[in-house]
Amino acid sequence: MPPWAGPVASYLATGLRETALLALASIAASLLLGTLLGAVLTQPSRAVRAVARAYVEIWRGLPIIIILYFIFFVLPIIGIRVDTFSAAVIGLSLWGSANMAEVVRGAVQSVPRGQAEAAAALGFSWTGRMRHVLLPQAARRALPPVIGLVVNLTQQTSLAAVIGLLDILEASQRSIERLTLSGGSSHAVPILGAVLAVFFVICLPLTMLSRWYERRLH
Distance (Å, rounded) from C-alpha 181 to C-alpha 53? Predict the structure, then answer.
């Protein structure tokens, strides 16, 4: 093993830990908030639906990198300061929850209408129909696109490097710069190859799981 490999591997491991924590936090927040919003998008009240729809359209319509810049650089101007990790979690969660809401809305509306009507006839409130009848049936329909969203969010964590978060991509870039300055050789190919391999190992099994489950549903 070359002498530079050990320190670089240790530094990349630190970045990988930040990437994993960022992915887990943003995925959890996106799934939780997105499920709630998706259910609200099927609510009978037009005013309530309009508020949820505005949230979804705003955050789905913006590139993630713009959201990250807005949270980290614009909010401090009005006195709201967040660290890089929190800004990355919030930015990814806003985008992820908006997309998750659309997944849940579509899945709920794909459940046969008679199911909701039967639950209403039995005296279930809208909340009861959602909790006990519609969401459980919608879950299996939503699973393939949810897995796709999880993969997408995992990949998009690399954008957090633009606001200075020491994720695995930022760690690799700093390692390349240090090696270039200290020894004249960047060793960029093996370092970036290791980053590529990490994302490949994480995302490929999830993508294959999504395709397998879609085939089972069909």
Answer: 50
Q: Which two tokens stand for residue 27?
A: 């995925």
Cβ contact 26:153 at 8 Å: yes
pTM: 0.88
| Helix H or strand E segment including 71 | none
- Mean pLDDT, residues 78-103 taken together: 94
Contact 128, 119 (CB under 8 A): yes
| DSSP label of 44 | S
What contacts 217, CB < 8 A, 6 or more positions away?
Answer: 140, 141, 144
Q: What is the CA radius of gyration of the chain?
A: 21
**What is the mean predicted confidence (pLDDT) over 91-96?**
97
CATH architecture of 5-217: Orthogonal Bundle (1.10)
- Reading the block at residue 206, the tokens are 């999830």
Contact by Cβ (8 Å): 26, 64: no
Predicted confidence (pLDDT) at residue 192 exceeds the cutoff of 80: yes
* Residues 75/40, Cβ–Cβ less than 8 Å: no
Amino acid at 8: V
Distant-in-sequence, close-in-space partners of 24: CB < 8 Å, separation ≥ 6: none
CA distance 37 to 147: 18
Q: Per residue in 17-60, pLDDT tens?
A: 999 999 999 999 999 999 999 999 999 899 999 999 999 999 99
Nearest to 89 by CA among 77, 100, 97: 97
**Residue type present at position 163:** I
**Which tokens sit at 194?**
């290791």
